[in-house]
Amino acid sequence: MISRRSALSWLGVSAAGVGAVNAFPAFGKTRPADGTRVIAFERFCVTDVGQVLHLRSYIADALLPCMDQLRNIPRMYLEAIVAPHTPETLVLTVYSSFNEMLEVRNRTSSDPRVRRAWSRIESAQVLDDVRSHVLIVSEESVRFPAESAIVKSGLFEVRTWHAPAWREGPPPEVSSVLSRIGVRPIVGGATAAGEHLPRFTYVVPFDSLAARQHAWARLDEDAQWREMQRESMSTYGSGVRTTAKAIYKLAPYSPLA
Amino acid sequence: MSWVFKIFPSIGVARIGNCPDDSASGFYVGPEIPGSVIVPPNGYKDGQGRVRRQAARFRVYGWENGVFMGEITSAVANITWTVELANTKAAFNAFGGIGHTRPLRNASVTDRSALTITPGPRTITGANGAAFFDTGLFMGIPVPLGEIQTDGSGRLLVLGGFGASSSPTNAPLTTFANNDGWHDDVSDGPVTAEVTLNGTKTPVQASGAWVICPPPRFAPPIFHIISLYDALLQTAVDHLGYKVPATPSFTNDVYPILKRAMDYQWVTTKIGNKHSPLLDVIPPPATADQRNFVFQALRDPAITPTVDTPHLMPAIWTDFFADVFGIRGHGSPATGHWANHALTPTQYSVMKNWATGNFINDWIGPPSPDTNITPDGLTRAALENCSGGPFFPGIETSFFTRDVYSYVEPFRLDGAQLNAGDLSKQQAVPWQTDFFDCVFQSPLSWWPAAHPDNVFTAGSNNYVTWDRGFNSFSDMVNFWSGLGFLVQSGDVVVETERTI
């Protein structure tokens, strides 16, 4: 069942209160005052596989055309292939500001076609839950659609790290380590509220599951990363720890597909 | 990067049926969410009155470096499933109750392999496959035990046998549990999976599961007062150090016990409206006197099983029936004894805590089944629909599963220590004889949630005997599929689809 709070949040009546620091310091060590982006993660958890087509219809036939009419907002639609809850569709949207996010949500939720489609979704009990998560990140931390070529691989991991040592954001070495092992996040940011803080969420494209396996295996073997982990352990009693991860593919109707 | 894969449910239940249709509309998948009741859209029986089989669906879940990732399907991996089913009842010892080892069944048969129905393992790789357990023999007669399929996502479906029991030697049916010369086609066995993630070359063995293929469940809305989940939870507590919450939840722990007790009104006239005082304690907190009144009506599981505790609950026979009355064939024991089966110590503790006021009052109304399928939920949903006692010898499995066999983790048997057929070998052969006999035996019932004693037909306020017209073991062997199924109809539970 969809919680009322979740549904209202999605419809723009309220928004999750969060903040963030720059997750990619190599691309901008100080956060520009007006150079931030708001990244909205909307997870639509479908009751069962038989209902997936209903959600696809809602997004592709109602939500997506409506947003197309509003303005050019970078977004992706991802379908989970390995995730704690499946079926799940993740809508990833980049806004220039909170105000823009709220404005867009208000306009889409008042669109008659979207409202009708959403009513059908609710009455058919298509969704178990809608989970919202918002990050505020630096402009440089968002690499799509500018680098859409890497996005077109179609396989993505959303990974969340709890990193007790990164209280001021990830140290500059993190970007170089990730780059060295072949991990090039298209989105990354820190959540300022909730458990396991400091907590960082990354969206990483991979060419294949094998490439993903290979990349993360290299991280475990990277000397600089291991040294960072050791220092964190000695100071905070814990290194960087993965608290959640899920693997997605680009939905066939997604703008970047 | 290290992956761990596990199969869920860790013990799955695929129930036999005499409808041979193995297309998707010919069978139904058993409960996968705790508390849910499956009502097949096209009925429990087909147009010819044959009982549809209940498939057990198995899934692989993955953990990467200790982080739960979710279900692994053919979208991301190549999964090779291997299942072995066997029926070894006729070669095992005759059943005599806990602590009583009896001679072999069919002791005069020297070729013991002729008594075991062992078609061997079957393997399927990828989506939309099928393989059949159709090469097993009993005394030279073919006895199919069912089949396995994979669905479009590479999940495994196990379908059991067809309810066919017979005697190649035309032996008579003489006892409830041990009939030489007879076979049935229930079965059980290991379920394993080898998982190769796309783009990788090294397959990883998933932590294995087990499947039981017992008789049909004719009363799906009625849950056993002690389910197999409760019994194996106690095994986990006793032998694996599993911790249950010190303070029970009213909604999740207490209410289910109360509801099961009240729901027995739909399957035995002996309960009738006698459990209506339980309504006084819902909603919580009720008064201390009201709670204590209910608790004082329960048998303490610490009491020696053969000791009578007149009028205490649950009003079902003990596992140690043989010690109370001596092993006997069809017929009623002497009346006047009340050697009943207690709740598990964990269930009893829940009720004791509640009675003393140590519980979480989280009541907002009767809980609805979740809508999420989860690994642990798959196991619980499978096991809570099975009897957790009395095991004399039991309907889905025996006390071996609770008391004897080893587990590698809660609810996951150590497959390395077991053979296909081990979970059903102690059960009655054929199952229909025990099923016929396990009706109310004054002053207690056996397992009315498996074999209802008395039911209501639609529109009637009067109880009728559920197996009315069945007068012998042979009747049950020949006509079991004509028995009705119970369904929830508004506020009542009624019999439907009776075809005899």
- Helix count of chain A equals 8
Largest sheet of chain B: 7 strands, mixed
Mind telling me the C-alpha Rg of chain A? Answer: 18 Å
Count of alpha/pi helices of chain B:
9
Oligomer class: heterodimer
* Strand count of chain B: 21
| Share in β-strands of chain A | 25-35%
Radius of gyration of chain B using CA atoms only:
22 Å
CA-to-CA gap between the ends of chain B? 59 Å
| SSE run of chain B | EEEEEEEEEEEEEEEHHHHHHHEEHEEHEE
DSSP helix fraction of chain A:
25-40%
Strand order of the largest sheet of chain A: 4-1-3-2-8-5-7-6
Query: Can you write the helix and strand succession of chain A as a string?
Result: HEHEEHHEHEHEEHHE
General description of the model:
With 257 residues, chain A is of the alpha+beta class. Chain A has helices at 4-10, 52-70, 98-110, 112-123, 148-151, 173-181, 209-221, 223-236; strands at residues 36-46, 75-82, 88-95, 127-138, 155-162, 187-191, 199-206, 241-250. Chain A has 8 helices and 8 strands, in the order αβαββααβαβαββααβ. An 8-stranded antiparallel β-sheet of chain A has the order 4-1-3-2-8-5-7-6. Residues 1-22 and 24-33 of chain A have low confidence and may be disordered. Chain B is an alpha+beta fold. In chain B, strands 1, 3, 4, 5, 8, 11 and 12 form a 7-stranded mixed β-sheet that branches. In chain B, helix 2 (250-263) packs across helix 5, helix 3 packs antiparallel against helix 5 and helix 8 crosses helix 9 (473-479). The longest helix of chain B is centred in the middle third of the chain and has 14 residues, at 250-263. Chain B is globular. Classes of the chains: A alpha+beta (257), B alpha+beta (500). At the A-B interface, strand 2, helix 7 and strand 8 of A face strand 5 of B.
